[in-house]
């Protein structure tokens, strides 16, 4: 198994942003809670996943957001590794085509196209970067997309 550092970093940033927004905080509010002179630009780059933060900085952010660091990292790990050792999510393309969720329309079209290809497998595994891109096309967060995908298997 290989780690895609950029994809993992983006997921960590997205989780930090969601957590901040759930707490009803602006970046400026969070900055005031940090008391460390961190710039708003640096906070933004952490949330966008374009800049790595140290473990100490991550713990500082979690404490300011009143979130145990292990809980935040567990959510990121679950998203990235999809609850399996190999990472990503296995998808039955037939179920995607049959799905009725309106926000999955781009995914349905892609799945139908894949199934129409000669010799194409009915089941595929999408890795974390592919899930991120697909979620963006569907106008969903990666976490919401994975939740919808998993509901198709039930």
Number of helices: 9
Measured on Cα atoms, how large is the radius of gyration?
18 Å
Overall residue-averaged pLDDT value: 87
What form results from the Cα inertia axes? elongated
The major pleated sheet works out as: 2 strands, antiparallel
Q: Structural class, from secondary structure content?
A: mainly alpha
SSE order, as H and E? HHHHHEHHEHH
CA-CA gap between termini:
27 Å
Instruction: Give the beta-strand count.
Output: 2
Q: Give the low-pLDDT segments.
A: none
How do the strands of the widest beta sheet line up side by side?
Answer: 1-2
Tell me the β content.
5-15%
The helix content is 55-70%
Q: What does this protein look like?
A:
The protein has 154 residues and is mainly alpha-helical. A two-stranded antiparallel ribbon has the order 1-2. It is built from 9 helices and 2 strands; from the N terminus they run αααααβααβαα.
Summarize the topology:
Layout: H1 5-22, H2 27-34, H3 40-48, H4 55-64, H5 69-81, E1 89-92, H6 93-98, H7 105-116, E2 123-126, H8 128-138, H9 142-152
């Amino acid at each position: 198994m290989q780690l895609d550092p950029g994809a993992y970093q983006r997921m960590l940033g997205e989780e930090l942003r969601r957590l901040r927004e759930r707490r009803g905080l602006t970046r400026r509010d969070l900055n005031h809670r940090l008391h460390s002179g961190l710039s708003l630009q640096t906070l933004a780059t952490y949330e966008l996943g374009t800049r790595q933060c140290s473990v100490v900085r991550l713990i500082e952010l979690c404490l300011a957001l009143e979130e145990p660091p292990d809980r935040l990292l567990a959510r990121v790990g679950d998203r990235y590794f999809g609850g399996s050792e190999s990472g990503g999510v296995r998808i039955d393309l037939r179920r995607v085509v049959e799905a009725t969720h309106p926000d999955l329309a781009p995914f349905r079209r892609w799945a139908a196209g894949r199934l129409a290809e000669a010799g194409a497998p009915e089941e595929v595994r999408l890795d974390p970067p592919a899930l991120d891109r697909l979620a963006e096309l569907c106008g969903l967060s990666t976490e919401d997309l994975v939740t919808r995908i998993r509901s198709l298997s039930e």
